[in-house]
Design a protein that fits this description.
Mean pLDDT: 79
Order of helices and strands: HEEEEEEEEEEEHHHHHHHHHH
Radius of gyration: 23 Å
Low-confidence stretches: 1-14, 16-56
Structural class: alpha+beta
Helix content: 25-40%
Number of strands: 11
Number of helices: 11
Oligomer: single chain
Amino acid sequence: MQCGTKYGQDLASRCPSEESAPSSAQSMLSDPADGSPTSLTFETGEPDLIGLDEGCPILAHPRAETLLSFLAVEVKALAICDIGEGHALTVGPIDEFVVHFVMEGEGSIEWNGGQIALKQGMIAIVPRNFSKRLTGRGETVKEIPIDKGCILGNGIVRYQTSHDEPSLRLACATVSAGIGPGLGLFDHLVEPLAELGDNRFSHMFEGILTEFARPAIGGRSVIESYMKQVLLLTFRQVIHRSDVRSPLYLTIVDYQVASVVNAMIGEPSLRHSLESLAEIAGMTPVCLSQKFQRIFSETPSQFLHQVRMTTAERLLKSTTLPIKAIAGSVGFASRSHFSRAFTQIHNEDPTSFRKVSCG
């Protein structure tokens, strides 16, 4: 089977016919009068997902490439952790996932119920809100909670368990990375994963540390470009594992859903209808709704609304565009309707959100 072909029967034979579609399936996903999203309810089912044969280079498929081109990465904090032999550094829950790169030595990541051995060159990713211990070589005789570290310069923090030569040195970055609502790169993780990288990982982390230590014009973009490469290379290594079945994975391997998500994220200002999105996917409106319920646990309308709000949040943080212009760019015909929708999610209006986010 070639990459991009469907498994089994034609999709229409596994989904309800268009004649069985509820009347609401013919509704627009945006109110034609004011552009604000409406709430629709659709029938749901359990159709088989379209996938690819094991070993197909799914990340090379044009739709997957388009989807991943929307990946937004933000490095929120960076630290060097030096852990001595027989020592452990205990770390409480953090609200973003953490990327650990083993710069030198060996040790482990331990948590309640599990452990991963670490050695030089490995990448370990720890889920958000996850408590862990970073341990050096040998039996742990001294446990030190992360409290205060020393600032190395320009935001890099160093944590040391002792003044002796470390048996494990890690570069640790707190990162957010996602394509859209429910499409975080590693949001599916329930426990840490570790992969052995190649020389590229070392060069990328050297670049990240250099940019942090010597800030210059474009430094943040360079840092996030390096981190994006690290994350995509790691994602590429784990994508075919049987335990990786996140919404992002399911979207990437389902070219019909990927096409729809690309359309929503790429052009959130358009008044997408269920029919127009189903036409992009090459399937019936009811079947598209069922697939969205299966993958995202929400309707296409709800997903589109989340895309618009996520895009608006990013624009409020990263641009000085007028709020009315942002409202139009995410599919709202008026600032007032946009403000109400935004406030319902963030409990503050766009103007207040921008002031807080930009300091």
